[in-house]
Input
Amino acid sequence: MFNHAHSRLRNVIERAFGILKKRFPILQWGMPSYLLNHQVDIVIACCTLHNFIRRFSNDDIIFNEPDGDLPQDMDSFYHRGHPTLSEIEEQRNLRDSIAMQMWASQNGT
Output
């Protein structure tokens, strides 16, 4: 069960990186001539620009290609905004509960 969920999430993450690399080729081909702190700034700038385009562009060609589609539940998550404090606490509790169940299952208790 965990492996299946992990695999689905990994696919979403890999797809997201694929979209970023397609939109910003510098991310795909590398930046060895830049200082490390500049490389970090470039990645942050690319992500920021991507999010801006996603939010304000009705015709995002790269994202709307079949390979770039997010699963329906992830797309709604992407557009929902910041979580509330109670949602954060609820997710922490869920995470802790899952971790405890996995630990108990592994240790046979």
Remarks:
- Residues 84-109 form one domain.
- The chain has a mean pLDDT of 78.
